[in-house]
Amino acid sequence: MFKRILFAHNATPAAERAMLYLEHLARVEKAEVLVLHVYQPPEQYTATQGYNTLVESLKSLAQEVVDDAVTHLREEGLEARGKVQVGLPARVILETAQEERSSLIVLGTRGPSNMRDFLLGDVSTEVLRYARCPVFLVP
């Protein structure tokens, strides 16, 4: 049923919890896993000295997050690969899911702290709302 699973890993405790469910699902479904980390450099500092260093640090950290997750999944006997993208997280997750023909998106969520946060958006809420495939959210 789920042959390609997109795992949106944002290096949070919720993402680490989601990985446990992801491992189980990928094993049962014999699915390929794409670990995706999306980072978004702060645009308001583009003219600041050291901005390029900051962006390179964010990119490097994102790559480490992906590499660690892919290595772990492969050690567990799963087929996994990674991808690092820059941009708006929800948009990139949705676009990548479309491009990769993902049959499931897995991501952790901290959950909205109040109704205002829920209505204004949250990455998991936006992905859930606009995804063209099932979404599995882990709190």
The overall pLDDT, averaged over residues, is 91
CATH class reads Alpha Beta
Helical fraction equals 40-55%
Query: What does the overall shape look like?
Result: globular
- Beta percentage is 15-25%
Total DSSP E strands: 5
Compute the number of structural domains: 1
**Mind summarizing the main beta sheet?**
5 strands, parallel
Would you give an account of this structure?
The chain has 139 residues and is an alpha/beta fold. It has a single domain, classed as HUPs (Rossmann fold, 3-Layer(aba) Sandwich), CATH 3.40.50. The protein has 5 helices and 5 strands. It has a 5-stranded parallel β-sheet with strand order 3-2-1-4-5, sandwiched between helices. Strand 1 (4-8), helix 1 and strand 2 form a beta-alpha-beta unit. Helix 3 runs parallel beside helix 5 (123-130). It is globular, with a radius of gyration of 15 Å.
Which SSEs are present, and which pair or pack?
Layout: E1 4-8, H1 13-29, E2 32-39, H2 51-75, E3 79-86, H3 89-99, E4 104-108, H4 115-120, H5 123-130, E5 135-138
Describe the structure using short key phrases.
139 residues, alpha/beta, Rossmann fold, five-stranded parallel beta sheet, 48% helix, globular
Give a brief description.
This protein is α/β, with parallel strands linked by helices and 139 residues long.
